[in-house]
Amino acid sequence: MGCWTPRFLALSGAFCLTSFGNSAASPWAEVGDAQLRSDIEVLAASGIIDNVTTQWPLPWGGILYGLGQSDVLDGQPDYVRAAAERVAREAQDAIATDRMNYAVSVDATNLPNVVRGFDALGREDVQGQASAEWMGEDTAVRLQIGGQSLNRFDHQTLVLDGSYLIQRAGNALIYAGYITHWWGPGWDSALSLSNNARPFPQIGITRMDTTPFSSPWLSWMGPWQAEFLVGVLDGPRLATNTVFDGTRFAMNPLPGLEFALARSQELCGSNQPPTDYFNGIHPCKPFAEYFNVTNDLAHPSASKDETNIDLRYTNRFRDISYALYTQEMNRDTGPFVHSDTSHLFGATVWTPISGVPVRLTAEFADTISTRNFFSFADDFYGQTYWDYKYQDGWQYRNRTLGSSLDTDSRLASFHASWPAPNDWTYTLTYYRASISSPNTPTSDSPVTPAGANRVSAIPVTIDIGEARARVPLGNFSIDFAARLQDDQPWPDHGFAAAGEVAVTCRL
Questions:
Q1: Which end of the chain is least crowded, N or C, by CB within 10 Å?
Q2: Residue 273 domain-assigned?
């Protein structure tokens, strides 16, 4: 990793200072910008755009349609108008066509954050990428190449994350590449598909906007969004070259209400225990398994499934916008009985304080499965992200595809975030992370050998305080973060202080 040195940073900075553009061409808003997401949710709470906002990347089509309606900002509070201006400015820059855009990004820290929320920074001590992108009327291309330092989580240094080819086909975007997804209403956890693990190679299709059905039989759904993707979990695994697919459908049937269903699967690949016990084989029948929704002793499936039910309600009371949300994830079983359900609950309030819109968020995520949907007194340990058919569990390159704390963990988080007039953004966060449990099976358990928590095999509760600032300076966007925590995941332990700097320069 000798290229990520102070000399490299200095050369990148000098290159940025001599460049002129500062926009990223993209047909969708991507995972990572918490202020952009906050602004979009404020617009949804105010009825300016629809409420289909929990499936990221989020295509710009539906957002720009809402902002383009006449008199849409009449009578709105100042902070809503400011949010609309920021979103419109970023969207218009992003969809500008027929120009090349270049970027260089570097992230360095002495201790990566154990909690990876929607706006997470680096996974490793040092990482960096360079990208080139172009967007035409119907096609978008980005090549993003970089590297990262080594640690016990990922031994691959070449990074292609964020590279893609996107083609418009009618009202759909067809894509291929390494795309980061965030499926769910949570800010700090998405139970089945998040940015915790690096993106795997995939192809997919998503709607370009959220136009309602014209049919009177289906128009009651209101604005809606749908996405399907299929990819390969490559890299070092026990079950090699496992296929992953995901389907999510979200709709806005009532003002302020978003309802979504998502189903994801691991299937096929090699080196799994047999599910056809009579013949001792593990069949690979992707089409049959996609439509197979049963999984019991009499009819075992050959795939590992996760199914999500997401609900989010948002509205405004006087000048205060708010959102209430939940996500429930069922593991490979029935919807309500024997469901092995993980839970997430949260609430967000946007309130003007001395003329500044402050976002306050409280969230709780629990990956200790309950046997039935809400049977909280009947917990089921070591099962949330594990399945006997796939000994690696629900992970890619040794990181869980969902919650950053992995199985049998609880995360309570509290945020206060606000933008300044100069477009700086400040965030104060408190996390209480209870990682693993005394009841979690160990890694050498003969029953669930991969059931152990991958973040910390020894249970630990960590209190983390973080202060962050995002600073735009011309072509630069700089994130500063400082963290204090009273303990660390095993095998480390004890108090720790961390600083992190992430710099992106758009050329």
A1: N
A2: yes
Which CATH number characterizes residue 286's domain? 2.40.160.130
Range of the domain at 203: 6-506
pLDDT tens by residue, 112-125: 999 999 999 999 99
Cis peptide before 421 (omega within 30 of 0): no
Q: How far is CA 461 from CA 109, 245, 396, 456, in A?
A: 22, 33, 25, 10
Locate 489 and state its tokens. 């995941």
Structural domain count, the chain:
1
Describe the crossing of helices 60-67 and 34-45 by its angle, rounded to 10 degrees.
Answer: 50
Quick check: is 213 in a domain? Answer: yes
* pTM across the whole model: 0.91
- What is the torsion angle, in degrees rounded to the nearest 10, for the CA atoms of residue 107, residue 111, residue 115 and residue 119? -20
Q: Answer whether residue 151 is part of any domain.
A: yes
The two three-digit tokens of residue 139, written as one number: 């096609």
**Is residue 453 assigned to a domain?**
yes
User: Given its phi and psi angles, is residue 96 left (phi above 0), alpha (psi -120 to 50 degrees) or beta?
Assistant: beta
- State pLDDT tens for residues 220-233: 999 999 999 999 99
